[in-house]
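Why do we care about 3D structure at all? Because function follows from shape, and shape follows, mostly, from sequence. That is the central idea of this module. The next example makes it concrete: a single protein chain, its amino acid sequence, and then its structure expressed as tokens.
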Amino acid sequence: LTQQEDGGASIHFFEILSEPNEIIMLQNDPKLKNKISSNDNQTSNFIVLNMGEKPTAGYKIGIESVLETDKNIIITVKESSPESSSVVSPVFTNPYCIVKVNSKKEILIK
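And the structure:
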């Protein structure tokens, strides 16, 4: 739904949101406005990926792959750092990503 280089939490964590009250919290986020319907809490789960505070711009977090099995959804997370040769702003950033999974199966994050 969104992948941002700044605006996430200051600690590194992954969270699966599946309860209606958690999904309402996402619906109130201006970056996600009109991307989440009221029926999504019955058919989908959401994942919040926070990379934590980083010392420069250029860091990213997202999804590398998704595999659906009979029992679950396996999601592989990809974290990227700026290349050592690139020029980046020396500002603190908090990269994050929010993903919608169109399934209510158990989610495993790698």
